[in-house]
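Worked example 3 (structure in, sequence out).
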C-alpha cells in the first residue's frame, strides 16, 4: 500500500510539472508569434500558477541598444496604480480607519468645500468604482497643451476648482472612468495616515513585498524601457504630480508577480485587503466593478483585471483566485488593442 501511495504521489508531481511546462510553452508561443508579427513592440510577460513563476520577454530596451527586455526591465504600469491605491484603501478598512460606505465629506482635505447638493452623497466606494459623478480632468485638452507631460499643468487649484464648483452629480451611480476620483482617494489616504501618498505606498506595499525595482518619483535607471506612442514616436515617461494615485508607478514583471503573489495569499495584509476590493460595488449590463477592479464571471471562472495606458505604454494585470493564477503583460508602446488581444488569446487557449 505504501508503495502504491508513493507511486501515485510521484505521478501527481510529474503530471503537475508537465502541466506547468505545457502552460508556459503555450504562453511563450503566443508572445513569440505576436513579436514576430510586430517586431517594433517590446513586451514582457510574467505568469504565476500555484506559486510557480514564469517569464518571457521580447524586444530591446531601445532602438540604439542591443540590451534585451527581460523580467527586470522597467515599464509604466500607469492606471494599474489605481488598484494599488484601492488596495491601500482596503488596508485602511481592515485597520478600522475608514469604511467603504463612509461618505467622503469628513475625509477630504479642507481645500475642498462640497456644495450642499453633494453633501453626504458620495461614498469611498463610489470614488473607487468610478461612479461618483464628479467632473474629471479633461485629458484631451491637457494632451493638446503638452503631449509629452499632460498632467504637468494639473495643480491643487485645478482640482479644488473642479470639485468646489460642482453643484450637481448628473451621472451619480453610473460608471464613468475617473482620474480625479483616485486622486481624491490618495488625498484621503494622506489625511488618514498623515503621510504622503509616496510614503504610504512604499510602507504598505512596495517595501513589505520587497518590490525592489518598483519606482515612484525617481525612475532614472539603466534598465528602463523606451515608450512609444501609437505611431511609433518616442514618448517620455509620465512625471506624475498631485494626480499620482491614479498612475504613478513604474515597475517590471518580476515585481508585479510579487504583487500578484501577495494578492493571492489571503493571509497577507495585501491579500486580506484585496478580498474587500474584489466585492462588487457597481454593476450594469456591461460590467461589474470592485474597488478599481473589473470583474468578469462565467460558469467556471471569476477573473479580476485592470489595464493601464500611458501616452507611450500599455499594460494589464489579471488573476483568478480560485484557480490560483495571475498574469501581467507590459508593452513598450501604447497599444490597448494588442494588449487586450494578447490577454484574450492566452486566456482562451491556455487558462480558461
Amino acid at each position: 500500500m505504501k508503495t502504491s501511495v508513493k507511486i501515485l504521489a510521484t505521478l501527481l508531481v510529474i503530471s503537475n510539472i508537465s502541466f506547468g511546462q505545457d502552460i508556459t510553452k503555450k504562453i511563450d508561443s503566443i508572445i513569440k508569434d505576436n513579436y514576430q508579427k510586430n517586431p517594433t513592440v517590446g513586451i514582457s510577460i510574467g505568469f504565476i500558477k500555484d506559486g510557480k513563476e514564469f517569464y518571457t520577454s521580447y524586444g530591446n530596451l531601445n532602438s540604439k541598444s542591443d540590451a534585451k527586455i527581460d523580467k527586470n526591465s522597467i515599464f509604466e504600469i500607469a492606471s494599474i496604480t489605481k488598484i494599488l491605491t484601492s488596495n491601500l484603501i482596503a488596508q485602511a478598512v481592515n485597520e478600522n480607519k475608514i469604511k467603504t460606505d463612509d461618505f467622503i465629506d469628513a475625509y477630504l482635505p479642507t481645500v475642498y468645500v462640497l456644495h450642499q447638493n453633494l453633501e453626504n452623497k458620495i461614498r469611498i466606494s463610489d470614488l473607487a468604482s468610478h461612479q461618483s459623478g464628479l467632473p474629471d480632468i479633461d485629458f484631451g485638452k491637457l494632451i493638446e497643451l503638452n503631449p509629452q507631460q499632460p498632467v504637468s499643468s494639473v495643480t491643487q487649484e485645478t482640482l479644488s476648482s473642479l470639485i468646489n464648483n460642482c453643484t450637481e452629480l448628473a451621472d451619480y451611480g453610473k460608471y464613468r472612468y475617473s482620474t480625479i476620483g483616485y486622486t481624491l482617494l490618495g488625498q484621503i489616504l494622506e489625511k488618514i495616515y498623515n503621510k504622503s501618498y509616496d510614503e504610504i505606498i512604499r510602507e504598505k506595499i512596495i517595501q513589505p513585498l520587497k518590490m525592489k525595482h518598483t519606482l515612484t518619483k525617481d525612475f532614472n535607471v539603466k534598465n528602463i524601457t523606451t515608450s512609444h506612442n501609437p505611431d511609433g514616436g518616442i514618448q517620455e515617461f509620465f512625471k506624475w504630480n498631485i494626480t499620482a494615485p491614479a498612475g504613478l508607478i513604474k515597475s517590471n514583471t518580476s515585481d508585479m508577480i510579487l504583487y500578484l503573489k501577495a494578492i493571492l495569499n489571503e493571509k497577507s495584509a495585501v491579500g486580506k485587503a484585496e478580498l474587500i476590493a474584489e466585492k462588487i460595488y457597481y454593476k450594469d449590463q456591461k460590467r461589474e466593478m470592485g474597488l478599481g477592479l473589473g470583474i468578469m464571471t462565467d460558469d467556471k471562472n471569476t477573473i479580476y483585471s485592470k489595464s493601464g495606458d500611458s501616452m507611450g505604454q500599455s499594460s494589464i494585470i489579471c488573476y483568478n483566485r480560485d484557480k490560483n493564477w495571475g498574469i501581467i503583460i507590459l508593452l513598450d508602446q501604447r497599444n490597448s488593442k494588442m494588449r487586450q488581444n494578447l490577454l484574450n488569446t492566452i486566456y482562451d487557449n491556455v487558462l480558461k
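Notes: The radius of gyration is 21 Å. The chain has one domain: 27-351.
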